[in-house]
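Final report, closing paragraph on structural work. Over the funding period we assembled a curated collection of sequence-structure pairs, and we close with a single example.
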Amino acid sequence: YFLHIVDQAIVSLNTRFEQYEGYEKIFGFLFTSDRLRSLDDKSLLVACVNLEDALKSGEHKDIDGLELCCELLFLQGSLQKSMGPLDILNFLKKRSLIYPNAVIAYRILLTIPVTVASAERSFSKLKLLKSYLRSTMTQERLNGLATIALENDVLEKINYEDLIEDFISRNTRRMLLFGRK
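Its predicted structure, as stored:
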């Protein structure tokens, strides 16, 4: 049993590292201002064209690789040392008319989840909820329980006394049975 768990952990880690490597190949040149500045013109052009190809869907493309390259070449001299992608995006947003492709590239970079951990947690919680005894529950109740399980931090902040009082006050019969004096 233990070896099976270790094997699953190793496979999961290998999969995630492969995802990170793929992400780094496409977006790696945008990770920091130091990395962006370290590229020569030819390397930057190749990276921008690769990013354009990665973001292309059929004939539709989110960015133009050549224009992005020109924008980033101009941007290289303006950036401070050791800026992260969020700092660079904030810098670019103030100048979005000058760097439209760069703004789009950094927005995509910062919104793509590197892992699918939240989705994995959702399915893991769903397996716990959908046990043999609960297999007959309605979809609405299952969705409610899944939301409660996933948003546990919000649930901990709820004042249950007020919730119970509100529930009791909505029905006269409940007030007689559960009414608090």
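The longest strand covers residues 56-57. The mean pLDDT is 80. We thank the funder for supporting this effort.
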